[in-house]
Amino acid sequence: MSAIEPSGLALFWAAVIAFAILVYVILDGFDLGVGILFGTTRDAALRDEMMGAISPFWDGNETWLVIVAASLFGAFPMAYAVFLPAFYIPALLLLLALIFRGVAFEFRYGAGGRAVWDWGFFIGSTVAAFVQGAAVGAMIRGIPVANGQYAGGPFEWLRPLPVLTGIGLVLGYALLGAGWLIMKSEGALRDWAWRRISRLAVAVLVVLAIAIIAAFIARARMTGNLFLDRPWGLIFPVIGLLAIYGVFVAARRRRDAWPFTLTAVFFIAAFLSLAVMFWPYMIPYSVTVGNAAAPEKSLSFLFWGAGIFVLPVIVIYTFVVYWVFRGKLRKGYG
Amino acid sequence: MDLDPLLLSRIQFAFVISFHIIFPSFTIGLAAWLATIEGMRLATGKPIYRRVFDFWLKVFALSFGMGVVTGIVMAFQFGTNWSVLAERSGPIQGPLLGYEGFTAFILEATFFGVMLLGRDRVPPWFYFFSCCMVSLGTMFSSFWILCNNSWMQVPLGHTVVDGKMVPEDWWAITTGPIVRVRWPHMLFAAFLTTGMSVIATGAWYVRRGTYPAEGRVMLHWGLGLVAVIIPVQLVFGHLTGGYVVKYQPSKIAAIEGRWHNEKPASEVLIAWPDVENRRNLFAITLPPPWGSMIDSGSTTAEEVGLDSIPPENWPPMRIPFFTFRIMVGMGVIILAVSWFGVWLRWRGRLETTHWFLWIAFLSFPTGFVAVLAGWFTAEVGRQPWVVYGLLRTKDAVTPSLTGGDVLFSLIAYIVVYAVIYSSGFYYIYRVLRDGPAAEVRGALPGPARATALRGGGE
Predict the structure, then answer these.
(1) What's the rounded Cα separation, in Å, for the pair B232 and A300?
(2) In b/e form, how buried is each residue of B236-253, taking b as 16+ CB within 10 angstroms?
(3) Is residue B55 in a domain?
């Protein structure tokens, strides 16, 4: 397939999707991360406080996933029609994990069965994080496409590299979640989270290093440029490493807002590194943004309603919610 | 083991969409009902309306949450299991369904929050305004779904380029003659579904004598609204049939149980279709020209029979034949119950006629059954096409899927829905059983969206 130059509208929608994924990863990342950390303690008071620290936010965070799916189907139906079959079982696991985790917020307060819903919350959060990470790994390996349809097997996402990136994202979200808890809490929970920061940051670095080695071993399968054509892109991995270094510094100096902020910077840097690796492909390394885009009539129909009206409302809504619930965790949250 | 991913994908789609449609058809009606009751409260200031409102608001929050969760699953089905459809018709269906997702989000993010949490924080007129906006939002959301589905029933406003269906005229796609009759048909179906549930709940309370005042409000309002809406719905149902006659000969022939061309045509009321021998057994039939009059409004028109359509273009004939009759049967029951109830009320005997209260109570599922049966008629009747005349269902399925994948996902959906929804249904039942007086004020949880299910396990 010859590469088609993406139109302005196609670039707009690609930017919207990239932005929505980034916002989703950081926002739902911290609440999934808190869900993962939730499973590592048995202390009921800590657990309740953890729930309280994310309950006003988590469902708003997840709507960014809906934005991603709606924009992808609307503006890049071909990419939507390849990604979902390529990740058939991961997408199923993600949906079921998010459903279980979502109802756990309410059901755990019901009399009886709390242990079941608490497990559901922890496992749901972990599975959701893992399959998202595995999807990234599978994308780095490349997604085979033939005649506009996915042409690979059902378990590409369980190869070594995707499994590593899956574990990496579980740890990364846990780090983000620990940073969030430090920022939003005081007393016992904050101390608990501080004690985990350095260890999680080391674990993230170790898994990431192994994943990078695995990625180079899998290089034979990939046709992506891995920064060879775009050496300037290496600035992003460098920023990411600096951010993680900052997390260690923060852990020594105990600055409450630093771990979350710097971990978020780390995620942004990792995201931009991937963007440099993948561009101009929307489905690496088979279909470009220009080739995946819907016709102009579809893109502009979507733009004049959703693009200029709905998206700003969603951004404003997100700001308002975080503003209303700013500062440290107080009584009456959630 | 030989598992057919196509068949399993169809079963899975039927399963998840049948579960889903129950909730929106209920919440579209409930949102309108809540706006009505809140408007009455604002106009009259009577506290009884507030009690009725708060009670149904709780049911609304629960159903809305379940509708959102099942709806997100739907949003992924097109891509996971029907990727050829998503790729080929994505330029049209993608934006329409994308708009539905955006509309639903705006609705939840803004006015729904006010409805749940803002009673004491905003002025009464704004609260009422928020109720109206939520109601409008649910209707708007259904508009996009009906646009999308109507386009799949009768594709228009498009051209085909390299096998892809590309939009040519969005105005035709969003305001075409099909969606103009089908959207109201769906809205009225939703109103009737909720209306029958309100009637049944009211009848339940009045009969038991538990909440007679609230029960009477529900019973009187429900009966009045349903009695007015049902004849309008019959008109739109007839108009919906009109588009089928005009554009989908295979579907109408299946619905009517008509095997041969007839001029003028007879009308099969009920029968057991014998597909093998192309005839009806045990048929009760109105003589010609009844069929032509019902389908074409003419005493002489010729009506097409399945004989003149190649069998590979037939739908699985018995399903639309029977589901259509179930839908119409439910409509007749709704008509009878609502009109008789209004007559009883006029005679002043409504609350004392216990056998009628029993019947009104037992008719609570009529709307739900009618909605499901109607959608089965529309969707199964469209087969073997997924986009009528353009793309066959068997060609639309994701090519990379294996039977094992779909069997796994189907079982997973069934198990998870069984666990989650039995809790949810049980909770709604408990809210209804406990009634308005047992309610705790302000008990609804934070930004209560997908999980307005607080206390489901209590």
Answers:
(1) 37
(2) bbeebbbbbbebbbbbbb
(3) yes
Convert the pLDDT of each residue in B75-119 to its tens digit: 889 999 999 999 999 999 999 998 988 887 777 667 887 888 778
As for how many domains chain B has, the answer is 1
Name the closest residue on chain A to residue B168, using Cα atoms: A297
**Total domains present in chain A:** 1
Q: Please identify among residues 10-69 of chain A the ones whose CB lies closer than 8 Å to any CB of chain B.
A: 55-56, 59-60, 62-63, 66-67, 69
Residues B231-246, mean pLDDT to the nearest whole number: 93
**What ipTM score was computed for the predicted complex, to two decimals?**
0.86
> What pLDDT is recorded for position B451?
35
Residue A317 falls inside a structural domain: yes
Tell me whether residue A184 is in a domain.
yes
Q: How many CA atoms lie within 13 A of A234 on its CB side?
A: 8
Domain that holds residue A213: 8-324
- B282 close to B272: Cβ distance less than 8 angstroms: yes
Does a structural domain hold residue A1? no
The answer, yes or no, to whether residue B245 has pLDDT greater than 60, is: yes
The answer to whether A88 contacts B409, with C-beta atoms less than 8 Å apart, is yes
Instruction: Please name the residues in contact with B107: beta carbons below 8 A apart, sequence gap of 6 or more.
Output: B133, B134, B137, B138, B140, B141
Residue (of B186, B187, B192) closest to B337 by Cα position: B192
- Which range marks the domain in which residue B245 is found? 17-261+304-438
Mutation to test the B interface, candidates A24, A99, A302, most B Cβ within 10 Å = A99
Task: Assign B280 to helix, strand or coil.
Answer: strand
Residue entry with tokens 């009848």: B203
> pLDDT, tens digit, for every residue of A234-265?
899 999 999 999 999 999 999 899 999 999 99
B274 part of a folded domain: no
Q: Which amino acid is at A203?
A: A
Q: A333 in a domain, yes or no? A: no
Q: What is the pLDDT of residues A95-120, one digit of tens each?
A: 999 888 887 876 676 545 678 889 98
Residue B291 lies in a domain: no
Best CA proximity match to B455, nearest among A105, A97, A101, A116: A105
Give the domain CATH number at A40.
1.20.1630.10
